[in-house]
Amino acid sequence: MEIYNFTPLSALAGGILIGLSAVLLLTVNGRIAGISGIVHGIVAPEKPNDLDWRLLFLVGLIAGAFLYRLLNGMDTSIALEASILIVGGGGILTGIGTAVGSGCTSGHGICGLAR
Question: Residue 69: pLDDT band by 50, 70, 90 thresholds?
Answer without folding.
Answer: confident
